[in-house]
Design a protein that fits this description.
The structure is a homodimer. The first copy, chain A, is of the alpha/beta class. Chain A has 10 helices and 16 strands. In chain A, the strands form 4 sheets. In chain A, strands 3-9-8-7-6-4-5 form a 7-stranded mixed sheet. A 4-stranded antiparallel sheet of chain A has the order 10-13-16-15, covered by helices on one side. A two-stranded parallel ribbon of chain A has the order 1-14. Chains A and B meet through β2, α3, α4, α6 and α7 of A and β2, α3, α4, α6 and α7 of B. Chains A, B: Pfam families: Alliinase_C (PF04864).
């Protein structure tokens, strides 16, 4: 949850302002859109008389989805090769959070057994627990860690790959014939090698984490079964009578630009984005190494990326930082005025935190410096600049 | 619900295309925004690098609300005099539907007794029943008609005034100390006399029904109690991580234009809108009179409108059309390829239907003609043009 209660740290001051790396605000990529090459592109102009209707296409299952957005989504997936779009319904949502809830509603409404158990392997995206619990639905029930789940009967497993918070490549773990919702928010080539084209019944994507446009609140689901798609649309219809047309127009323009940019290496967003997150990870690993055995970070295997045509590693949008001693790392970082998401919220241990890797440059640099000072209180060592 | 299954009427043809007056798509007002005076105004230009963050103002209870939208909302309410905005929290939503659900969540979460009963006086907006039922929450339970509600204990009454579907001016009917959510979607001077400034704990408004921008999915709540506002924001945070920034920017520009237009009678949207709905109502009443005692329409009292400075009647955004015989009016109209919302869905009788009064001119004219042919099958009478 985006709760700001914990931001009121009394003794932060001008020299040590609070750095919020709790939420995954992806503003790091703004510099790409402000570059000389891009600044004049992707400008959206909307006259006062446009986009007034609730409807986009009454003949489409997802009647509020603009056809041009659907085409832009399919074109980008084709260019990247990360997901199959053929013979699927596209459902647009106010971010993929709303679509995840729409999928829970759809699958449980269509199930004979209720409440349907919802699970995800630890550590999981903390918001899943909130999404599955907050309205106390009788359709489904949050059951926590998929690895220890042993209730008989139907269930839904949410699989995020690369995983939020720890960046690992994931597959379902229950494997007892239940339904699976795949969250592929981070299955894009700047974050992880595109090893194959994902091809599942329900796949979620979000505009927020591709090129950083979180403010638009656009997500989409690729759904095989028309009955599931219809039920998801029913959820979105009752919940918010569809999705902002302004955001859909803007997402269309930007997704089309991303697709185009793939053709020119020097302009490619994904080349840029990959360099950006890679260098941040190198800086973070340098600092973690420097602190000896104080902190831990996951290691990620190399894999061949079909998109880049070369082998590379995963550079997740979040760092899953741990400490080797049995400490409360979230509190430890809070003493340095750095806000992160404690591991317990992700079903894991308080010795871990989730750290947003996509914040502004200054916040990221300050975070690295404060991390160093946990080990070396009087350290003023210059952190090498890995920025490209 | 926006279900399009019922649109597949097999025998509609080019001469008799289906007219959909079921949903309240408010496209009638588009001509105002396309007029010579307005066409070049209210153009919104958004560069690719803008509006990327989830956040608008981290110090605000509603952290995703843009400050300029909050100011535009307050300025318009001040200009119209329809609602008190002082000492209130503004919560922005993806339409007022999402805000209504946020309010149900907030009030029931804060209540000791659960599930909280939800009621509305018949005939009610059919979507309330869906909103209060679809996820089968254990926090609240739809209990139907407020007039026959006699369960002891706390409850929430939803009061819509002017009412959707029948346009009546409403007050709470249970009056046993429960919570009230006021839906003032239609408390604007083109629809009804502004007799006083509404001043309640929770008041909902929607951008869709003011000047017709339904595609933007913007609504707002004026909320007195900070704890209720916080819980509503919690709902919106988990449900959709806030509200499209593009839509907020556009709503800001258009609401500011509406406020400005109040100062120049010839440009005033509310003068224009009032003429528009008034002439449509005059045409409809002419047709209903012409059909003798076949159909019924509610009568609305005159009242002094503080905004226009004169006495006037209510011209609702929906017509609550009845038939004097005990017929299924929705089916009767469907035979004429006119889709409306049957009275039973509003907790009332099938002899009534809700008819959208804000559709395109052509659809409205065709609807009137087909209504006449129910009484006079071979009638080709010219309906007088009441258009201004």
């Amino acid at each position: 949850m985006f709760g700001f209660e914990n931001m009121k740290i009394s003794s932060s001051d001008a020299a040590n302002p609070v750095i919020n790396l709790d939420q995954g605000d992806p503003t790091a990529f703004q510099e790409y859109w402000m570059s000389m090459t891009m600044k004049e592109r992707c400008v959206v102009v909307i006259p006062g008389w446009d986009l007034m209707s609730y409807f986009s296409d009454k003949t489409n299952v997802c009647w509020f989805l603009r056809q041009d957005l659907a085409e832009a989504i399919k074109a980008l997936h084709r260019a990247i090769g990360n997901a199959a779009t053929e013979e699927r319904y596209i459902v647009v949502g106010n971010g993929s959070s709303q679509l995840c809830q729409a999928a829970l509603f759809a699958l449980s409404s269509l199930s004979e057994d209720k409440p349907l158990s919802i699970v995800a392997a630890v550590p999981y995206y903390s918001t899943y627990e909130e999404e599955a619990s907050y309205v106390q639905s009788q359709l489904y029930k949050w059951e926590g860690d998929a690895r220890t789940f042993n209730k008989p009967g139907p269930y839904i497993e949410i699989v995020t790959s690369p995983n939020n918070p720890d960046g690992t490549i994931r597959e379902p773990v229950v494997n007892r014939g239940g339904k699976v919702i795949y969250d592929f928010a981070y299955y894009w080539p700047h974050y992880t090698p595109i090893t194959h084209r994902q091809d599942h019944d329900i796949m979620l994507f979000t505009f927020s984490k591709i090129a950083g446009h979180a403010g638009s609140r656009i997500g989409w689901a690729l759904v095989k079964d028309i009955e599931v798609a219809k039920k998801m649309v029913q959820y979105l219809t009752i919940n918010s009578i569809g999705v902002s047309k302004e955001s859909q127009i803007r997402a269309t323009v930007i997704l089309n630009e991303l697709t185009k940019s793939c053709r020119i290496k020097s302009e490619s967003f994904f080349e840029y984005g990959n360099e950006k997150v890679k260098t941040r990870w190198e800086s973070l690993r340098w600092v973690v190494d420097k602190t000896g055995d104080t902190f831990t970070l996951p290691d990620y295997p190399q894999a061949f990326c079909n998109f880049f045509g070369k082998s590379s590693s995963t550079y997740p949008a979040f760092a899953w930082l741990g400490c080797n001693e049995d400490k409360d790392l979230e509190s430890l970082l809070k003493e340095k005025y750095v806000l992160t998401r404690g591991g317990e919220r992700c079903g894991s241990d308080k010795k871990y935190v989730r750290v947003n890797m996509l914040g502004p440059n200054k916040d990221f640099e300050d975070f690295l410096n404060r991390l160093l000072t946990i080990k070396y209180p009087n350290c003023f060592e210059e952190i090498p600049c890995f920025e490209p």
